[in-house]
Amino acid sequence: MRIERAEVLVTSPGRNFVTLRITTTDGVVGLGDATLNGRELAVVSYLRDHLVPLLVGREANDIEDTWQYLYRGAYWRRGPVTMSAIAAVDMALWDIKGKVAGLPVYQLLGGRSRRGGLAYGHASGSTLEALFTSVRNHLDEGFRAIRIQTGVPGLKKIYGVGGDQARGQKYDYEPAGRTAVPVEEDWDTRFYLQHIPGVFEAVRAEFGAGLPLLHDAHHRLTPNQAAQLGRSLEPYDLFWLEDCTPAENQEALRRVRAMTTTPLAIGEVLNSVHDYQTLITEQLIDYVRSSVTHGGGITAMRKLMDFAAIYGIRSGFHGPTDISPVGMAAALHLSIALHNFGIVEYMPHNAQTLEVFRTGYTFTDGLLDPGEAPGLGVEVDDELAATFPYTPAYLPVNRLLDGTVHDW
Ligand code: CS2
Ligand code: MG
Predict the structure, then answer these.
(1) Which of 54, 82, 91, 81 is nearest to 69 (CA)?
(2) What pLDDT was estimated at residue 164?
(3) Do the domain assignments include residue 402?
(4) Which of 311, 315, 264 is nearest to 109 (CA)?
(5) Into how many domains does the chain fold?
(6) What is this structure's pTM?
(7) Closest Cα to atom 11, ligand 1: which residue?
(8) Shortest CA distance to 174 belongs to which of 398, 15, 33, 354?
(9) In-domain check, residue 388
(10) Ligand 1 neighbour 322 (Cβ under 6 A)
(11) Does the beta carbon of 216 lie inside 6 Å of ligand 1?
């Protein structure tokens, strides 16, 4: 069974998604997610101009060989554009293999390790009152683990803090801005560090000790600041503190790790096992945050997680709405099969997106399940997808109060 055709679909039902569709000589179709938020068209070109011509005529069954061919054969290894493109090919080939076998992909990965994957939702509010409402709404929707982000006095707007939920603005920071250039936001780490511990104290007082709580620092702190935050949050027993320092400096986590017992998660911008080498071998983190979409696909993420398993490190795959339903499904098949699963991020896609991509995964009692459909279990509606053309959209840029550009 050879690859007959590979097409790249770009659609924007509220936000941009890049999907690779591979069709085999037997007429079997597989889908892969290649969405790289804010740099989508770079991956479209990488796929269309450089990978599709290499794929046509290749044996569709040989997933590992195709992965190595695209990774080693390119000479230029790693990086988010390359790895997202390879991920899309990899996912599509697993989708095809599952369909040919008549099995959901998780069965091909060794079968089920649990009933469902614990998912966390994004609660946020510019004030404590708005935050509490958001937490309650998430609990009502069935979430059993919740990420907490709030406004900070003295700062105008903070990424990850949504608007008025009653007016449907729940995740209005995702996508950040459908504008020609990025929106600019302000930032001051001292204001932030002074404010956050009190927020967690209030959330614990309101919702009790049992609820798993997470927090994302979005790479904005120095190692010392991150250590200070981790220590100040210890009384509130976080499930994790995410992306406390810029992820490209693995050694920075040594200082943080030595200073706090708050569990650490990092890696949504990492895309290779090599990016994790120090983090994993020195046990500097507790959770791997890469997505299957940006981490080279199921083949690569399975290996990364097996490496992490030796050190007792678990998965916490990135699952914001910029991971398409196809990428989310791939993450869920892997999550359900892995022994060292930890948690998975879940921001439900909007209704338009779920009309373009018909999904088979379910969310029940706080757990996500990939479903039993053969392959990944997602289908795309071409005609509907074509009615939502690509729209430029960018994440915000941060400036300190004196105008200096700050870490994302
Ligand atoms: C966030 C995301 O989900 C998360 O943890 O950090 O909102 C992230 O900023 C975007 O997905 C970036 O594309
Ligand atoms: Mg994050």
Answers:
(1) 54
(2) 67
(3) no
(4) 315
(5) 2
(6) 0.97
(7) 320
(8) 15
(9) no
(10) yes
(11) yes
Out of 46, 71, 120, 159, which one is annotated catalytic?
A: 159
Atom of ligand 1 nearest to the CA of 173: 7
Contact criterion met (CB below 8 Å) for 298 and 275: no
Q: Please, are residues 362 and 339 in contact by the beta-carbon 8 Å criterion?
A: no
pLDDT digits (tens, 9 = 90+) for 255-271: 999 999 999 999 999 99
> Using the 8-state DSSP alphabet, how is residue 213 labeled?
E
Say if residue 339 is in the same domain as residue 267: yes
CATH number, domain containing residue 53: 3.30.390.10
Q: Is the pLDDT of residue 244 over 90?
A: yes
Residues 42 and 62 in one domain: yes
Mean per-residue pLDDT of the chain: 96
On whether both 16 and 78 belong to a single domain, the answer is yes
Q: Indicate if the pLDDT at residue 16 is higher than 90.
A: yes
Which residues constitute the domain of residue 191?
Answer: 108-373
Do 226 and 361 share a domain, yes or no? yes
Structure confidence by residue, pLDDT tens digits, 153-185: 999 988 889 876 766 677 877 765 788 899 999
Q: Quick: pLDDT tens for 44-80.
A: 999 999 999 999 999 999 999 999 999 999 999 999 9
CA 223 to chain centre: 23
221 located within any domain: yes
294 assigned to active site? no
Q: 275 CB less than 6 Å from ligand 1?
A: no
pLDDT for the residue 167: 62
| Protein residue whose Cα sits closest to atom 1 of ligand 1 | 320
The residue annotated as part of the active site, out of 218, 219, 294, 333, is 218
Statement to judge: residues 37 and 131 lie in one domain: no
Distance 392 CA to ligand 2 centre (A): 21
